[in-house]
Amino acid sequence: MAIKLIKLIKENKGGFIGALLLFFLMIMTCYALLFVSTQSRLQWNDPIFWSDNPKTAAPEWFNIILKPFGYQLPEHKIFLQKDAIVNTLNDIDFKLENNTFSYQFDYNEFPSSFDIPYTITLGEIPPILEIYVKRPDNLEFKIYSNSLESVNSLQNSEDSSANSVNDNITAPTLINSNTVSGRVFSSSQEVQNSLSEYSNIFKFPISGLSSEKIIYSQTDSNTPLKGEYEFIFSVYSFDSDTILQNLKLVIQGKVFGLLGTDEFRRDVFFGILIGTPVALFIGITVALSSSFIGLFYGLYSGYTGKKAGTFMLTIIDIFISLPTFIIFIIISIHFGRNLLFLIGLFILFGWPGVALLNRTFSIQIKNYPYIEASKLMGESDFKIVLRHIVPQLLPFTLANFALSVPIAILGESALSFLGFGDPSFPTWGQMLQEAHASSAETLGYWWWIVSPGLMISITSIAFILIGRSLENLVKIGKRR
Amino acid sequence: MRVFFFFLLKKVIILFIVLSITLFLTIFLLGSTMDKIMMDQVRLQAINSVSGPSLENPQLQQFKTNEERQKLINQQIKIQSQSLGLDEPWYSPKKLFNGIYKILTLNLGNSRFFTTYNGSNSVNELILEKLPNTILLFTTSSITIILIGLFYGTYLASKEGSLPEKFISGLAATSRGVPDWWFSMIMIVVFSFFLHIFPSRATPLSSPNEPGYVLDLLYHMTLPFITLVIIGFSPFVYYVKYIVLRILDEDFIKTLRIMGIPKKNILYVHALKNAGPQLSTILGLGITASLSGSLLVEQIFDWPGMGNLFYNAITQNDSPLIIGLGYISVLIYLLTRLILDVCFTYFDPRIKSGET
After folding, report:
1. Against a cut of 0.90, is the pTM above it?
2. Least confident range of A37-41, A319-323, B53-57, B178-182
3. Taking CA atoms, what residue in A is nearest to B14?
């Protein structure tokens, strides 16, 4: 048995590789189905969920490739409140709380940016927030200060904007009666303004530069300064009720995760993972239905012959002559953006090819002597077809099934690329569409392009290889 | 000859049915949206004509109440929509007939957003401007693929089981599974982002009237051309090899060998000639497939062809342009198929004698 199996693999190397690829896809599917809930799948299109991730970061292993060249991209770092060293200083009429994060910076490029989300419970008198950066060369920049006084007046005028999260809104907002939440972005105007006061320290004009390129820069040239940085978040509170609830320091790196992130800070690997079951579902459903319909349609039109058979052949001819892709586009403009609808469309245009093949074969088989013999014996047509013709056609149908899976997958990704994908089911084609819309290929975000396309290719190639070796097996069987 | 004639007649009828189906489908699906868009335009025009600063337009001072003004607007909308035929639904026979007649006579109307270099927004002129570019890119790449396929495929047929032969088989399966538009994106990343050899946008920077335009166009065409050839050549080589191999098995080739005709001669003259009909079938399918695939590839390279225009029309929802482009591409597609079918049947001796 084992020897036979090894021999079979040796004879069908392509099929074996295809089976391995399919196995890999199955593992991905199982993982996605078991460990990713519907809830988190829907979060794919929710920008708030991804706000702690870096923008367009390369995969983490990219640094390993760069290491021999002595070049390192900044990693993504999230410091939680417990990572901070807290110093408290009690004065007569105020209390100063310093939260210090120390950040070791040893990279050859500036980080993308940083942001500091915080939540504070207010007492009677609003506290004052200040953020300092202490550099390895002992320079200290005050980059942000805010007395939370304005928040109280905000409370009365408008509280509808409380849940809006925007890239450049750093203004603290009330989340309930006495809790304030805010997010300080390095790209915000306040940080830029406070940094412009240090322009005399630097020997180059800093006015057009973004703030992280100033903070991490050497003073005589605009290149990164390596060493240990300290981010100090100070709270001056004037009563005992003021408590710092939550504090984070997110240093946006340029490498992140297994496959990097996209323009919308989403983890590309997560997208790849949740796209796998969808792609397989589309491919297998379409292939199964169209080869089933094709089998029986082809059988009937081939076996009956006569006028009905010719008429059925004409219908197949018309379907095959239709310019499928253009029709897909025109139908999708009107109805599109629904997964089941797309699947239906692919089945509608997928079966005629299979039917034509099956028709040709069933005409051939129909004329074999043993069929005629059973006809003479008085067996019913239905029985002849089921007993004698279908078993002969099944291997071909199996090969056809495998070969029509990639057609559906490639078609779906092409339509998704045109923007007709179902937004509630993120697919690889949609990822590529978003990448192209953000002109990822001209900006060099290769990780965002390579992995979804590679997955599409792997899936199609797996089925093509399996289908091909099935075809070969059938042919060999026939020769004997 | 009679069989051939009937075959041709059948083909023409089928293609005509296909054309009518696509046409009807397009008008059926886009007709209502197009009416809605035109109605909005009429409404906007009517409102604009009676609003604006009243001092400049003495007619506006006649209105005492808002109602009177609204009345005039409604009146104008009614007159306009009647003259454009918008008061009837899109499926009224008169309009349907009109629409089909217009399209059949290639009166494709005006695009809503796009213009040619000369500023015309007629769909006909837009298509005429882009069509040569599409033909230029896809015929040159197809011819290259065919030449490589014919010679290398036939050569490989004589080397069955060798390493290059196995390699091409694998490559053919791979290229069939790889989406060509994704491969184009990869080529842009490699050749224009990392290596800076070719521009990432294939639209030439100079305008068509400048002297250096042709050279500029060819330079911008290089990357799409290379991409199309790389992704397309191996499946064709594989098919040619497959078909030639089957012919090499036949008895007349063995006879030729015994007669002592040189191996090269047998391969490139006798085997290839006999593979003709089958090869042209595959060629026809390949060319029509590459025409529809051109849509995405052209858009990714920003090649100024029909596919790119089609993509932009879809994203901007420019219905007249979508209908016009859809119709023209279907027409080109069907004509190619018809010509190829006629050629196969004319050259295939089996059909002439009525065997199949």
Report:
1. no
2. B53-57
3. A318
In a mutational test of the A interface, the residue from B10, B175, B189, B309 whose CB has the highest number of chain A CBs within 10 Å is B189
The predicted structure's pLDDT at residue B191: 92
Burial environment of residue B295 by CB neighbours within 10 A (0 to 12, 13 to 18, 19 or more): buried
Contact between chains at A417 and B296 (C-beta distance less than 8 A): yes
Provide the mean pLDDT of chain A: 83
A223: left (phi over 0), alpha (psi -120 to 50) or beta: beta
- Least confident segment among A265-279, A371-385, B181-195, B272-286: B272-286
- Evaluate if residue A412 carries a pLDDT over 80: yes
Contact residues on chain A for B192, CB-CB shorter than 8 A: 442
The predicted model gives A310-337 an average pLDDT of 82
Q: Report the percentage of chain B scoring pLDDT > 90.
A: 8
Reported as a single tens digit per residue, the pLDDT across B285-331 is 676 666 666 788 888 998 888 888 888 888 887 878 888 888 888 88
Give the span between the Cα atoms of B39 and A333, in whole angstroms: 20
Alpha-carbon distance B56 to nearest alpha carbon in chain A (angstroms): 41
A151 Cβ contact list (under 8 Å, min separation 6): A122, A126, A172, A173, A174, A180
CA distance A91 to A237: 10
Q: How confident is the model at residue A28 (pLDDT cuts 50, 70, 90)?
A: very high
A460 at B interface, C-beta within 8 A: yes
Q: Does pLDDT of A458 surpass 90? A: yes
Cβ-based contacts of A324 with chain B (< 8 Å): 292
Q: Which CATH number does A62-252 carry?
A: 2.60.120
- In the predicted model, what is the mean pLDDT of residues A420-446? 89
User: What is the rounded distance in angstroms from the CA atom of residue B31 to the CA atom of residue B311?
Assistant: 19
Percent of chain A as helix, strand, coil, to the nearest 5:
55, 15, 30
Report the sign of the C-alpha dihedral through residues A74, A78, A83, A84, in that order: positive
CB pairs under 8 A between A and B: 132
Bridge partners (DSSP) listed for residue A100: A85, A232
Q: Residue B52 pLDDT more than 60?
A: no
**Facing A441 at nearest CB: one of B170, B185, B315:** B185
* A461: contact with B, CB 8 A cutoff: yes
Both structure tokens of B147: 């030449």
A96 touches chain B (CB under 8 A): no
> Right CATH number for A2-46+268-479 from 1.10.3720.10, 4.10.520.10, 1.10.760.10, 3.90.950.10?
1.10.3720.10
H/E run at residue A371: helix A369-376
Q: Give the percent of chain A with pLDDT over 90.
A: 20
DSSP code for A57: P
Domain borders along chain A are 2-46+268-479, 62-252
> Could A456 and B176 be called an inter-chain contact, meaning their C-beta atoms sit closer than 8 Å?
no
Chain B interface, best mutation among A310, A318, A329, by max B CB count within 10 A: A329
Judged by CB atoms closer than 8 Å, whether chains meet at A460 and B176 is answered as yes
